[in-house]
User: Fold this.
Amino acid sequence: MKLKCIPLSSVGAVWLVGLAPAWAASVVIPLTNDPFQSDAAWFGTTLSGPLNDSFAYDPEDPNSALPQGDYTVDPTDLWHSPDGQSNQQYAVLFDGVYSEIHIDFYPRTDDPGAYNRDDSLTFRFYNGDWTTPVETITGVFIDNTAGATGIDALPATEADRFLITTAPVNWSIAELRATGVPEPSVPLISSLAALGVGLRRRRK
Assistant:
């Protein structure tokens, strides 16, 4: 078996042998809606709709299975913005802090006349609160005929939430999925550092 080592820079040249970092690999991020930062859902849609479809999401091939995106089949599977208002927003929370974040945006599929409504989206990533974004991506255009559109934050961006806004009126989301590399929590880093110090003292 090949041993893996984690350097603990906070305690100098201390190495833990045989311990693999749980945050080293990208994972599917659990998502929840923040209703206090989102505009209300209209036309029978729901705020939770874009986050709860049980389709077999595969981050390696996000179009191998597709969510239900037809408003006429079940509007509760989607979120639709308030009618006639611009600068609407939809807010999403992660279950922790992540880097190397990738978002797959699945659009509504049943109304070709509305395909241009989710063009020119802005994605803002935040960490800790909604005060100041740590990264902003503008001018995102969603292809309503090609399944998921992927949006990538900068690899070094660390965030625990994101906000989607748009200038056009009347837009909708069928489904959202996200992946990222979990960042170690402060208590975990402190515990590993303490363990490293203990191992170093035992070796003296």
Summary: Residues 1-20 have pLDDT under 50 and may be disordered. The two ends are 28 Å apart (CA to CA). Residues 25-183 form a domain with the Jelly Rolls fold (CATH 2.60.120.260). DSSP finds one helix and twelve strands in the chain.
